[in-house]
Task: structure prediction
Amino acid sequence: MSKIDEFIEMVNASDNIVFFGGAGVSTESGIPDFRSADGLYMSQYGGLSPEEIISKSFYMSHPETFYKFYKDKMLFLDAKPSITHKALAKLEEMGKLKGIITQNIDGLHQMAGSKNVIELHGSVHRNYCEICHRFYDLSYIVESEGVPRCQCGGRIKPDVVLYEESLDYGDIEQAVDLIRQADMLIVGGTSLIVYPAAGFVNEYRGNKLCLINKSKTSFDSKANLLINDSLGEVFKFFL
Result:
């Protein structure tokens, strides 16, 4: 039996599945990891790293430069749900998948039809005024020149978790509860190096931990089933 056949068998035998996903879920929709920006590209930002630019302190001190990078490297308006996004939505509709925990901020899981999605790092589709807290959609941010401003004059901040910011405690609680109750945990498209999110995998108490990632991770030895392949090649069998 192939590993993918084994995976399909596991899914068919489970009815409380949780999916924990990272950037690899979105790269199949044509969204590159913003951290992949090379040195030549970053030279226009004084040689700073992407992580330094997408930090709370940089946002506060250099909002114009922050927004230039944010709009150029983190917003992909034409991206559409991939095979994986669609397959997960279908598994939820069937009653097998109970929730998705994502580190992505693109909203593609919801676009595919998934309902129970915990966005650990927020969403580009939500933006709020730092003064009056009025919310704005993504199109307002895209169409704004320079730093987006509210009608009240306040600066608008994307509702995404920047470096140096903490995850929302409510999201953490929900994610941990989902994982603890799962009979099958599928971890896909993440190198599991970003904490505290990566540590959530340790909360799983079952014996069907499936890890799908092209490259090695530090959690490989803990997986009950390890598949080093693209997510689309695995999930296409559920469409």
User: Anything to note?
Assistant: The mean pLDDT is 95. The chain is about 35% helix and 15% strand. Residues 169-181 form the longest helix (13 residues). The chain has two domains: 3-31+81-121+166-238, 35-73.
